Amino acid sequence: MTDIHPLPSGPAAITPGWLTSVLRSSGALPAGGEVAEVRRVPVGEGVGMLSEIEYVHLTCAGDAGGAPDSVVVKFPTANEQNRAVAQQYDVYRREVRYYAELDPQNDAPGPAVHLSAMDGDDHFVIVMENLAGYDLGDQVVGATLAQTQAGVDLLARQHASFWGRMTEEEHGWLPRAADSFHAENMYQGVQFGWDPMLTTFGDHVPESVRGMKDRFVATVKTLQAQLDAEPLTLAHGDFRMDNLFFGSTDDHHALTIIDWQGPLRSRGMHDVAYLLCQSTQIEVRRAHERDLVQRYVDGLAAAGVEGYAVDEAWADYRAAVLYLWCYAVVIAGTLDSANERGVRWMTEMIKRNVAAIEDLDCRSLFV
pTM score, two decimals? Predict the structure, then answer.
C-alpha cells in the first residue's frame, strides 16, 4: 500500500506505475505484469455531480494474465460548490467505507472494486471495473417499465441482505433516516434550497407545490421518523438512472449499480420511491406503481423477509414520495448543475416528483 499512498490528486496524476500497484494489490494483475501505458477518457458531462469519473484504458506488458484492459477511476469533484455539499453530507467517506465493509455482504450485483481509499478527510480515489457493454441508464429519458422492474428486483435483493440487521454497533457510521447529521442537513437544505430551486426550475413547479413550503418543512421530520422505523435496511440513497447499468448480453447481470455516496439506514421504500418518483417515466409509474410496490414486497418475501405487508409498503411509499421532494429541492437548489445535461435531468426529476406528489395526494400527509 505504500506504493498507492499518497493517492493521485486528480485524473491527470494517474500514472502507469500507480495503477500497476493498485491492480497488483487487488489481485487483478500478476506480479510479473505491469501497466505500461494509460489513456484517459472523461465520462460525459452532467452524469456525476459530486465526483469526477474517467475511463482509463490500459496497455499492459509482461505477464499480465487476465488483467483488465480498462478501469473506471473516481475522484472528488473539482467544482468547489458541489464539493462543499459533498463534505457537508460526508459522501466520500461513506462510499469508501461501503465498498470496504458492506459490498461483500450485498447480494445485489455491483462492479469489482480494485481500490477504495481516502487520504485525509475529503480526498478519495476509487478504481473499479469498467462496465463496458452494459447500457447506462439515462436520467433525462427516464426508466421504462422493464428497467423499473429490474430496479425493483435488485432493490429487493439488496434490502433483504440487510433487513433488520443494521445495528448501531456495526453500522453506526451510517446515518439513519432521522435524527442524524444527514437528516438535519436535508431539513436545513430544503429550506435553504427552496427559493433557488424555484428561480431556476419554477416553470415546472405548479402553484399547488410552490405554496406548500411551510407545511412541507413542518412535516419533514415526521416523514423522516416514518422512514426510520424498524426494521431498517441498507438504502442506497441515490437510486437513479445515471447510477444504473442494464445488462445487454446473456452473461451480464440484468442490472448493476454504482455510486454509493449516500447510503443510509432506512426503510427500503426510500430507494423504491426514489426510483419510481424521480427516474421512472411518469406514464409508466401511473400505470404500474401499485404492481411495482407489490413486486417489491414479493421479492423481499422470496428472499426470506417476513412480515412486511403490501399495505404497510404502500403507506411507506406515499410517505417516501413526499419526503423525497427534499432531495429534489436540495439537488436543484444547492448544487451547481454546471452544464446543459445536468439542468435537463434535474428538470425531469422535478417534473416526475411533482406529478407523483399530485397523483398520490401526498399533501394529505401534512401534519
Answer: 0.93
